[in-house]
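note to self: dont lose this again. the chain is below, predicted strucutre after it. 234 aa total, dont forget to put it in the shared folder this time
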Amino acid sequence: MHWTERYFENAYIKRWSSGPPSPAIHAEAAHLLVLLSPAPELPLLDVGCGDGRYALAPSRTLLQLAARHGAATSRSPRWVGGDMRGLPLAQGFGGAVLLDSIGFFDEDDENASVLRELRRILVPKGRLVITVANGTPILADFRPRDVERRGAAVFEIERTLQQRPTRLVETIAVQEPSGITHYERRQRLYSRKELTQLLEASSFVVREVSADYAGRPFDEAASSKVVLLAEAAA
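---
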């Protein structure tokens, strides 16, 4: 079993699920729509949507949670489970987002295949917003261990780094009243330059780089995230 199956089916929802969308999430979604500027007749796609706070879910558990959150909105999203390396969708999307959802596969070409699939399903000049953790400050202030608390659950996290390519590996022990479970999380750390090169190799043109969806200037040394707005080449 690949680590993503255990982690996203069980640990993710305990560690990161934030419940129904908050006012801050609604504000971020509004900024995303401005960035995407989609044609009104074309659908949008959120790949790796987690628990659905912005609108392919990575796990059955998260897909069910996303559907429950979506039921409370004024629109009716279509929820699809699948492999982002081979999206079960045809071309015809006016825009897409990939938010903190790249770099989880073992091989660089597998991660690049996600971008190639997004280019395939977007119409020419369709826009993509992609967000990743900015690897530069993580490496500059590397924390080998952390303890996080989420309600009754305590997460003890041990971190190591792999090189060439740079990958963050977390070994996670989750302590709950029912016992202790162990998980692994692995993520490729990208610089802005590396991500730009990946997008260009997948037939995208990078239009903007910022630190958040509102457009704050990106600082390579200090920004926690890098947000890139790209456009599918005609």
